[in-house]
Amino acid sequence: MLAPVAHINVIAPNGRVLGLLVLALTHLSVPLTACLAYGASPLWIMGTLVFLAALWRIGTVSSGVGTRVLCASLSLLSYLLSFSLAVSFYMQGVGYTEAFFFHLNIGTLPQALSSYQVPAILGFLGLILSTALPLVIPVVVVPRALRLLPLPIAFLAVFLSSAPLWSFVSYLLVANEIDVSSQYGLYVESDGGLHSSDKGLFSDDRKNIILIYAESLESIYLDTAIFPQDYLPKIKRLAADAHMFSNMQQIAGTGWTIGGMVASQCGFPLMASVHSTGNSTIASVEKPYPDSTCLGDILADRGYKSVFMGGADLAFAGKGNFLSAHGYHEVLGREQLASKLEDPDYLSLWGLYDDSLFALAREKFKELEKSSQPYLLTLLTVDTHHPNGYPSRSCSQEFDDDMGNSLRCSDLLISEFIRHVRNNADMERTLIVLFSDHLSMRNSLWPVLNENHAARKLMFMLFDNHPGDISDIQGNHLNVAPTIIDAAGVATVRTHTGAHSLFDDRLDELTTESVNEATLLL
Predict the structure, then answer these.
(1) Under a CB-based contact definition with an 8 Å cutoff, are residues 509 and 298 in contact?
(2) Could you tell me where the DSSP H helices lie in 106-194?
(3) d(CA 155, CA 74)
(4) Torsions phi, psi of 494, nearest 5?
(5) Cα–Cα distance measured from residue 363 to residue 301, given in angstroms and rounded to the nearest whole number
(6) If DSSP codes are grouped into helix, strand and coil, which group holds residue 471?
(7) What is the pLDDT tens value at each position of the chain, 522 positions in all?
(8) How far is CA 146 from CA 29, 51, 68, 154, 259, in A?
(9) Which of 216, 267, 389, 499 could join 406 in a cystine, given CB atoms 3.0 to 4.6 angstroms apart?
(10) pTM here?
C-alpha cells in the first residue's frame, strides 16, 4: 500500500524531498518572476505545476539510469524554454515576437551576456539545477492519485502545459497573417517630388538629409498628461516648427532597431518567417536583400553621399553590412568612432554615449556641408535603450531612475543638434528628420506605457524651410522613406506594400489599407 502524501517529508531520506523542492522552486522561479515583475499570465505558473506533477509521475517508473536521464532531459528542455520566454518578457514585456527570434543567434549572445550579467548567471544556475537534480534524486513515494495517472497522459501534460509552446503557437499565428509581397523595397514612380523639379544630378532642389533614429523615443513621452515629468520639453518646443505626423503606428516586423531601420529604409517589414533571416544572416551574406531597393540606393543613384554614425557595434544585428550594401558610403560604429574620443573608455554597455555621438556628428556635418555634393547623414542614438537607459554624463541627473534621465538627456542632445544644423545649414536645401526606430520595449516606465497602450505612437518629425504643421494621417515605418524622398525633392516613391509618402493626398485610403494588411502590433 502506498504511503499517505503527508508522510512524504518524513520517509524520504538523504535529502530526497529537499532536492524535489529545490527542483520545483527552480522551475517555478521563472514564471513567478515573469508574472510578478513583467506582466506574464498566471496560467504560466499553473502550467509549470502541471509539468512538475507529470515529471514526478514519469520519474516513478523506475530508479534506473534511463528514467533519470529522460526526466533530466525533459526538465532541462522545459527550463530552457521557460527561461527563453522569460527573457522575451524581460526585454520586451511580451511573449515571443519576431524581434526575439531575430536576435536568437550566436552573434547576439556575447552582447547579451555582457549587458545582462545577473540574469545570465541566474539562468545558467537554473540550467544546472534543472538538469542535475533529476539525475541524482531517487524515486520517492508519491500520492496514489498521481501514481494512477496513465503515463501517456503524463507525457502529454508535459507538452500541453508548456507556456513557451503556446506563446510560440501564438507568434506563428500572427506571423502567418502577414502578407508581404514577393518583391521587396521601394520603387520610383517618377522624378520630381513634392518640392522638386528635375534640374540635374546636383540640383539645389534636392535637399541634404539628416536622419536621426532616436532609440525607443516614441511620441507618448511628449504627453505631459501621461508623463507629468515632462521628459521632452525641448523637442516639444521644436515640434512647433516641424511637419509632425501624430498617428504613426508600429506594425509587425518593425519593433526592434534593425527591423525598424530596414522597414523605414526599404519599405518592407523584417519578418523572420518571410525572410528566413536573423542577425547572423544579415551580417554574413555579401548583400542582404539584393533584390530590394532602399533609401540609400535611390539617393546613391542621384549623386548623394550617404554616411551612417551610431554608437553601437556595427556587427550587432548586421546593420553595418545592411547599410553598406544599400547605398551608404561611410558606415561608422563603435569600433570606428571610439578611437576619436578624448577618453576612449567613456563607453556604455552598448557603445558610445549620445553626447559623444552628437559631438562627432557635428564634425561630420561640418565636413559634409563644405562639399557641393548632396548628402544623407544618418544617426542612431543608444542612451534610451531598454531596460533602464544609459544617460550621458554630460547631462544633469534630474530623476530617480536612469530611463527618465536618459529621456531628458536625449531631449537636450537631440534638440541641440537639430538647432545646430538649422543655424549652420541652408534650410532651403536641408531636411532634418527625427524618427523613433521603434516603440519602447519593456523599461522602468513600462507600467505607464502599458496603461496607455492606445496612445503609443512612433515619433516622426520633419524640419525644413516650410511652416510647421500636424497631420493625424495614419502611417507606419513603410511610409518613412517615401515621405523623406518626397520632402527632399528627390523623387516620387512608393513601396511594393502600397505605402506612399505621407504628403500624398491619396494616402488616406492607401495607408489604411496597407496598415490593415500588415497587422498592427505593439
Answers:
(1) no
(2) 109-115, 117-136, 144-147, 151-160, 163-177
(3) 10
(4) -140, 170
(5) 26
(6) strand
(7) 334 443 333 334 556 778 888 999 999 999 999 999 888 899 999 999 999 988 888 887 777 888 889 999 999 999 999 999 999 898 888 888 877 887 776 666 776 777 778 888 999 999 999 999 998 876 555 666 666 678 888 888 888 889 999 998 888 776 655 544 434 678 787 544 333 333 333 345 789 999 999 999 999 999 999 999 999 999 999 999 999 999 999 998 899 999 999 999 999 887 644 434 444 456 556 778 888 899 999 999 999 999 999 999 998 878 999 999 999 999 999 999 999 999 999 999 889 999 999 999 999 999 999 999 999 999 999 999 988 899 999 999 999 999 999 999 999 999 999 999 999 999 999 999 999 999 999 999 999 999 999 999 999 999 999 999 999 999 999 999 999 999 999 887 877 777 889 998 654 444 444 433 333 333
(8) 23, 12, 18, 9, 48
(9) 389
(10) 0.82
d(CA 181, CA 477): 16
Here the cell at position 184 is 521587396
Phi-psi group of 139: left, alpha or beta (phi > 0 → left; psi -120 to 50 → alpha; rest → beta): beta
Q: Tell me the backbone φ, ψ of residue 251, rounded to 5 degrees.
A: -105, 165
- Rounded to whole angstroms, the Cα distance separating 401 from 413 reads 18
DSSP state of 185: B
Query: Residue 109, SS3?
Result: helix
- What is the number of alpha carbons within 13 Å of residue 203 lying toward its C-beta? 18
Q: Identify whether the C-beta of residue 151 lies closer than 8 Å to the C-beta of residue 57.
A: yes
Reported in sequence order, the residue ranges of 329-397 that DSSP labels E, i.e. its strands, are 330-332, 375-380
At which residue does the C-alpha cell 525533459 appear? 74
The whole-angstrom separation of Cα 522 and Cα 515 is: 13
Helix (H) or strand (E) holding 213: strand 208-214
| CATH fold of the domain at 178-188+207-518 | Alkaline Phosphatase, subunit A (3.40.720)
Per the CB < 8 A criterion, the answer to whether 294 and 481 are in contact is: yes
* d(C-alpha 476, C-alpha 512), whole Å: 10
Alpha carbon of residue 390 to chain centroid: 16
- Nearby residues of 445 by Cβ (< 8 Å), 6 or more positions away: 227, 401, 403, 404
Quick one: which of 286, 214, 252, 218 has its CA closest to 102? 252
Round to whole Å and give the CA distance between 411 and 436: 13
**C-alpha cell recorded at residue 74:** 525533459
The domain limits of the chain are 5-175, 178-188+207-518
C-alpha cell at 72: 533530466
Residue recorded with cell 501624430:
246
Q: Which helix (H) or strand (E) holds 22?
A: helix 16-38
User: Residues with Cβ < 8 Å from 145, sequence gap 6 or more?
Assistant: none
Closest by CA position to 282, among listed 311, 252, 334, 325? 325
Distance CA 456, CA 463 (A): 22
